[in-house]
Write a structure and sequence with these properties.
hAT-like_transposase_RNase-H; mainly alpha; 250 residues; RNaseH-like_sf; HAT C-terminal dimerisation domain-containing protein; 3 domains
Length: 250
């Protein structure tokens, strides 16, 4: 059994068959990031193989980042060409000293330019920041919600990736149970009848909680009763044997 389990485990965790979204989820965990993934892959697969896997992961993350950057641009990028041309004209007038009121527009344009530069290096800034401390009360979704302004694009990726269920076993099991209860001969059952059937099936299959201490007491009690019966039977046989012997002598 253990050998069969190992074969399935190796097949699932083979480097070419791993779902890399699992790695993306760890990458987006501020307690681990890319350093933890690199550490684990080096120990599991060696330096050469882990390097190829890390390159593949980085390509996937860069593609996700570029895709989400288009989907969720910063608000100043959606003002349109008219606003940009107006800002350019304001910048020109402000540089020539024609209107002091346009200095505010020039200042805001410089800020926006810096924000555009920062957005291009958002991945690098995230990796350069220190790791968060592990804590039982740490809520990763709350952490990313608070970092929306700092990591405009990454926070959107984290919101979508980290909300994906790790497994679909529960939903598949529910559909399988429904198929076993509602077959072609039971398709017209009332809802409360179906509910009763499913609940009864669940109660029957539910594991029984075994109290080892009470069970051992019960076993010792049975053993003592059995030993008493054996002793009584031996005494009765001995008495009967004595009676038979006395009768024979007479």
């Amino acid at each position: 059994m253990a050998a069969n389990m190992q074969v399935k485990l190796d097949k699932y965790w083979e480097s070419g068959a791993i779902n890399y979204l699992l790695f993306v989820a760890i990458y987006l965990d501020p307690r681990y990031k890319l350093e933890y993934i690199e550490f684990c892959l080096n120990r599991l697969y060696g330096a050469d193989k882990s390097k190829d896997m890390l390159n593949k992961l980085n390509d996937l993350i860069n593609k996700l980042f570029e895709h989400y950057k288009v989907m969720y641009p910063i608000s100043y990028e959606s003002n349109g060409s008219t606003t940009l041309s107006s800002n350019n004209a304001s910048q020109s007038r402000a540089e020539n000293g024609e209107d002091d009121d346009d200095w505010d527009n020039l200042f805001r344009m410089n800020v926006k330019k810096k924000q555009r530069d920062v957005q291009r290096t958002e991945l690098e800034r995230y990796l350069e920041d220190g790791l968060e401390d592990t804590s039982p009360t740490f809520n990763i979704l709350t952490w990313w919600k608070g970092k929306t302004d700092k990591y405009h694009v990454l926070s959107r990726i984290a919101r979508d990736i980290l909300s994906i269920p790790v497994s679909t076993v529960s939903s598949e099991s529910a559909f399988s149970t429904g198929g076993r209860v509602l077959d072609s001969f039971r398709s017209s059952l009332y809802p409360y009848t179906v509910e009763a059937l499913i609940c009864t099936q669940n109660w029957i299959k539910s594991p029984k909680v075994v109290d080892l201490e009470s069970e051992l007491v019960e076993v010792e009690k049975l053993e003592s009763e059995f030993n008493g019966l054996v002793t009584i039977d031996v005494g009765v046989i001995a008495a009967e044997f004595d009676t038979i012997t006395t009768t024979t002598r007479v």
